[in-house]
Amino acid sequence: MSFPNQRPRRLRTTPAMRRMTAEHRLAPAELILPAFIREGLSEPNPIASMPGVVQHTTDSLKRAAAEAADLGLGGIMLFGIPSVRDAEGSASLDPDGVLNKAIRDVRSEVGDELVVMSDVCLDEFTDHGHCGVLDADGYVDNDATLDIYARMAVAQADAGAHMLGPSGMMDGQVAAIREALETAGHSNTAVVAYAAKYASAFYGPFREAVDSQLKGDRRTYQMDAANRREAIREVELDLAEGADIVMVKPAMSYLDILADVAAMSPVPVAAYQISGEYSMIEAAAANGWIDRQAAILESVLGIKRAGANMVLTYWAAELAGWLKESR
Ligand code: PBG
What we know:
- This protein is of the alpha/beta class.
- It has one domain: Alpha-Beta Barrel (TIM Barrel), CATH 3.20.20.70.
- It is 39% helix and 15% strand.
- Strands 1-4-5-6-7-8-9-10 form an eight-stranded parallel barrel, surrounded by eight helices.
- The longest helix has 18 residues, at 142-159.
- The radius of gyration is 20 Å and the shape is globular.
- It starts with 14 loop residues before the first helix and ends with a helix.
- 46% of the residues are buried.
- Bound molecules: ligand PBG.
- Ligand PBG binds at residues 119, 121, 123, 131, 167, 203, 206, 218, 274-275.
- The site of ligand PBG has 10 residues, from loops.
């Protein structure tokens, strides 16, 4: 050895040494639990492609939210699955629609103990499964969709959401929502912008989770996996439009994007470890091919190390439990 005294391994000699010198660690407060509620269910409904994740009933969702608050999670992100869908996704505007009602129920359960977040997007509510309304040619109509997002945002804020997550990748969605919220007197309702959201094959299991009606893909509005520079443009636009937090999604195949955004963002950065990322690890673990707990911890730590201040993950509650147990 030419530098015999240089031994990085010294800091790896004991668990205590490794713990003390760790550059990053996970905490429950930065984890956000995505949760699904389905209208008309009498029992929670397991999602086959996401072992351990269910479509909730009102009661089971309230329990999950209370547990999340007890565990000290940062937040919960709600997705609703209505029993009736139409071309405009009108159930999203109904104050008693599945998602708006769920927001109210969860707020009454957890108050301000947990940040209650909700998905502002039409894909769960439309009968064609797109994130916006369609024009005569079947193209997703950006500005007609913004009008609906603006009203949806106000309905969700009225229901008590602390933070809204526009996930449809329409141009101008953050500005449209921000303006509508201000006009409606909801100036304290925050927006976590899905700023750099890519068209991804890893959303597959989510489509089952929300009984998606989509045929085809979302490539005319979600970003192309080939593009890195474009993510900065999307983030800058969302910041200019008033985003309080910017998100990168998916996470694991986009850690370079996350690092780029973390390096330039003046607001906190979130990352969404999506359904397919969850299911891949669960499937490999179920086959005995990887150590489940170690793989989960490593995957989320990697997302944090790349620059995320907070992580949406379907393992949020389980992870928080592990973090409490370990020192
Ligand atoms: C759109 C939305 C999607 C996800 C979150 N919000 C689906 C999509 O863009 O196709 C995916 C989340 C996941 O895969 O876990 N409302």
